[in-house]
Write a structure and sequence with these properties.
With 346 residues, the chain is α/β, with parallel strands linked by helices. The chain folds into 2 domains: 59 residues, Orthogonal Bundle (DNA polymerase, domain 1); 265 residues, Alpha-Beta Barrel (TIM Barrel), CATH 3.20.20.70. The protein contains 11 helices and 14 strands. The strands form 3 sheets. The protein has a 10-stranded mixed beta sheet with strand order 3-4-5-6-9-10-11-12-13-14. Strands 1-2 form a two-stranded parallel ribbon. The chain has a two-stranded antiparallel sheet with strand order 7-8. Helix 4 packs across helix 5.
């Protein structure tokens, strides 16, 4: 049992650790050394950080500890996606999914940002469980670190997507701290262009997310404000026209990708008229569109669109000049696909 006076060092930014060093009368550059041990060498025992003075290791041990989320279950899908069920220090549970590409040369990790979700989107299983709390920085990073430790020799996690449990922009301060460590030279050294942050449409924060240099995926799902509000109650707080206007103000001239995610729901948002309305809504935007086959789950009233209708919907969008993909959602057979995560239904 960790004494409550100690701090999980994984919750600290490098700047925070440098400030702590200064308060202790220690050299600030030691913070970078500690980060390299933690994030690049996966060494979490202070005594094994051998280039640190013994006195510093003793002080670190007195004031800090390091704790990763505990893996309680690992389930592998027929399509090779792997779902990890984690238990946090307070007993709360979250899930993350490791997704290999088709030739298994690259891995994408989908991480959670909250325990539960307060937005209640109708197509999302996470929304069916009550919001419990935000994840701390170390719990976000810990998903990556714990999964990385399970990889075979030579395997790496090349891409990171914040598309797991919760709304990332509803926990943006912790996401920003984690992002800084994911991308820093003394941290995990991921390129921002290999990170995608998704949002249901927390409009005021989207420009700041974009300024990080990451890819941004906006869960759209309908061009009809009334239908979107039924499907995504967040629309009532952040109206669809305001969301689109904000997207149009982003500088999309660089290499960052702006994506509209569109879950195809039979008889709800998949008609030709819905396609035409989506074209009009996104007109003038440099945006890629991902059509996502709905992954059903117990208790949900929606059904996935027919394959023929998905293809026809895609063709209508492509004829208007949009880059449109039908996204293959891996792990659906183990409830690890898009919209299916629920921490084993807490």
């Amino acid at each position: 049992m960790i004494a409550m006076t100690k701090t999980n060092i994984l919750n600290m930014s490098q700047l925070e650790l440098e400030r702590w060093m200064a308060e202790q009368g220690l050299e600030k550059y030691r913070a970078g050394q500690i980060f390299q041990w933690l994030y690049q060498r996966s060494v979490f025992d202070f005594e094994k950080m051998t280039d640190l003075p013994k006195d510093l290791r003793r002080v670190l041990k007195k004031d800090f500890y390091s704790s990763l989320p505990e893996i309680k279950e690992i389930i592998r899908s027929e399509d090779l996606a792997t779902k990890f069920l984690f238990e946090l220090e307070d007993g709360a549970r979250i899930e993350a999914v490791l997704i290999p590409d088709e030739n298994e040369k690259e891995n994408t990790l989908c991480v959670s940002s909250q325990v539960g979700c307060r937005f209640g989107c109708g197509f999302c299983r996470t929304g069916s469980i009550k919001f419990k709390r935000n994840l701390k920085t170390g719990e976000i990073l810990g998903q990556y670190l714990a999964v990385r430790a399970r990889l075979k020799h030579g395997e790496e996690i090349q891409r990171l997507v914040f598309m797991g449990m919760g709304e990332p922009l509803d926990n943006f301060e912790e996401i920003k701290k984690a992002f800084a460590i994911f991308t820093s030279r003394s941290g995990l050294r991921l390129s921002p262009r290999r990170i995608t942050i998704s949002t249901a449409g927390v409009t005021p924060l989207i420009p700041e997310v974009w300024s990080l240099g990451v890819n941004v995926a906006v869960s759209l799902n309908s061009a009809d404000p009334e239908k979107r509000a039924i499907l995504m109650p967040i629309t009532r707080k952040y109206p669809l026209p305001d969301l689109i206007q904000t997207l149009k103000q982003l500088d999309t001239s660089g290499r960052q990708k702006l994506t509209a995610e569109y879950v195809m729901l039979k008889g709800f948002n998949d008609s030709n008229e819905h396609a035409f309305r989506l074209v009009r809504l996104l007109s003038g935007l440099k945006i890629m569109i991902n059509l996502i086959r709905f992954n059903s789950f117990p208790g949900c009233e929606f059904e996935p669109s027919e394959e023929k209708q998905v293809l026809e919907f895609q063709e209508k969008l492509k004829q208007s000049g949009f880059l449109v993909f039908i996204r293959k959602s891996k792990g659906a057979d183990i409830l690890a696909g898009c919209g299916q995560l629920a921490g084993r239904k807490q």
